[in-house]
Design brief:
This protein is mainly alpha-helical and 498 residues long. Helix content is 51%, strand content 0%. The chain is globular. The relative contact order is 0.14.
């Protein structure tokens, strides 16, 4: 018997899936999409998949064409939040100029190594429960004696009924549980910081958004992009130029993707939150708009304050807020997260559960990858744990939503606050084995110490256009020992596939 081939369902790009996400985005930014929503549902369309990137099966050509047309109709609706959420960097700076440049304390190199390790450990902690609902994360952790969350997830002792009800993230189960961690596996939360280093190495701190677009086309396989980045990548291949790559038929433009690309801009602008935010803006507008961009600026500025030697997490969060338009939804989410943590009567790890419940009551209707709930959770976790590394990453992951991304950013910032690799608990750093798996730039297997040296060599110290070695370190190529590598420009699609 011959079976028909299974339909190819490409995640995050099919119009019949995008329309549901765009309807959701319209509700979030205040556009009245009642008529368009009715047209879509009456025609037989469905709303967006709750957690997956694609609906189970294809739709008719007629319904797909309608979805495409309605996406353009939705884009034409007036947006009442636009006045409080400017797009241009000059307008953003007018609303939120950010703090002045501060001094850079000694010890930048060890701080940066701790940041790389912290980002990896926090990401790895969240990987096996990515996409799981909050109830599933709590059930798994309680079943294995790991609640409040304080160490790696494990299958040891896990109730089979709970395991069946809440299966691990299938891509991460083999590499991210306590019993099988052996180095840091590949993840987009680490791939994008690597791309950030390549961007600065090739183009310097004066890079343009178009420079980043070219780097993606030459170094980032399309299959390793997700949500807004995948849409922007598709738009580039369709001949659409930045910043329209972020706007055209992209319902994910206010999700978390730009925020996870912000670390390198913060790390390489120590003591200069406003400069870090400006760099993050040029990066983010390739794929994001409004609050998606502000999330990246917030993270970059907070990280820059910590990279400069600020030892207080609350000052870092204040620096991040200072670069975000104060009436934006992103600023409101961060302030809500901070307030929820400060108002919690119980500041122990167990007391954070009530904070998370409050956050989910306020933001639980958003998609789990949207920047607003995740920014609120990140700010709450850092505040409630008072910047402690273990407390911050465990709280961030235990709160659900985008677990690996939140754990990564929390780990990056608190790694900087810790100040050096040896200040991080060995149970988090030893399993990483100083080894990062990646398909980016010939860097597979690179060590976090080498990445820290490269980052330090690219850091802006003093004048905005200066970058060079710090702390007396002689910069070493992070690909040392891997042979020479040519710096090619963007390749055409045929060359990449060939």
């Amino acid at each position: 018997m011959t079976y028909p081939p299974a339909p190819l369902r490409v995640t995050w790009v099919q119009p019949e899936d995008l329309i549901g996400h765009e309807l959701r985005q319209a509700a979030e930014d205040g556009r009245d999409a009642t008529v368009i929503r009715r047209r879509w549902l009456t025609a037989g369309g469905a709303l967006a998949p709750d957690r997956a990137g694609a609906s189970p099966g294809p739709v008719s050509p007629r319904l797909r064409a309608l979805a495409t047309a309605l996406l353009d109709d939705l884009a034409a609706l007036p947006c009442p939040s636009a006045a409080d959420e400017p797009a241009g960097l000059a307008e953003i700076r007018a609303a939120a100029p950010g703090p002045p440049r501060g001094p850079v304390a000694a010890g930048l190199l060890p701080r940066l190594e701790a940041a790389w390790l912290g980002r990896a450990a926090g990401c790895l902690l969240g990987k096996p429960v990515e996409k799981l609902p909050l109830a599933g994360i709590r059930a798994i952790a309680r079943s294995t004696g790991n609640w409040p969350l304080h160490t790696w997830f494990t299958e040891a002792g896990l109730d089979p009924a709970i395991a069946a009800r809440h299966p691990w993230n299938r891509r991460s189960r083999a590499t991210s549980l306590a019993e099988n961690i052996d180095g840091m596996p590949e993840d987009d939360d680490l791939n994008h910081p690597l791309l950030g280093l390549l961007l600065l190495r090739r183009h310097g701190h004066g890079f343009t958004t178009a420079d980043l677009a070219g780097l993606w086309l030459s170094e980032l396989p399309a299959g390793r992009t997700f949500t807004a980045e995948r849409i922007a990548y598709r738009n580039l291949l369709d001949g659409i130029e930045p910043p329209d790559t972020a706007r055209f038929r992209n319902p994910f433009r206010e999700w978390i993707g730009a925020l996870i690309r912000a670390d390198v801009h913060g790390w390489t602008h120590p003591g200069d939150p406003a400069g870090a935010a400006a760099a993050a803006w040029r990066d983010a507008v390739l794929s994001h708009t409004a609050n998606g961009v502000y999330g990246a600026m917030f993270a970059a500025a907070a990280l820059a304050a910590a990279a400069g030697g600020t030892a207080d997490v609350h000052q870092c969060l204040a620096a991040g807020l200072a670069v975000v338009p104060p009436r934006s939804r992103l600023a409101g989410a961060v302030r809500f997260g901070i307030a929820a943590a400060r108002e919690a009567p119980d500041r122990t790890p167990g007391g954070f559960e009530a904070v998370v419940d409050r956050l989910h009551a306020a933001y639980g209707w958003h998609h789990w990858v949207h920047v607003l709930p995740n920014a609120a959770l990140l700010a709450a976790a850092l505040t409630h744990a008072d910047g402690d590394f273990t407390g911050s990453v465990c709280r961030a992951v235990s709160g659900g939503w985008d677990t690996d991304s939140n754990g990564a950013t929390a780990g990056s910032l608190t790694g900087l606050l810790a100040g050096a690799p040896e200040a991080l608990p060995a149970r988090w750093t030893a399993p990483l084995a100083n080894r990062l798996a990646t398909g980016i730039g010939g860097l597979d297997g690179v060590g976090f110490d080498a990445l820290a040296r490269e980052t330090a060599a690219l850091a802006v110290i003093g004048a905005p256009d200066s970058a060079g070695p710090v702390d007396g370190e002689v910069p070493q190529d992070m690909t040392a020992g891997r042979g020479p590598r040519e710096d090619h420009g963007p390749l055409c699609v045929a060359e990449e596939l060939g």
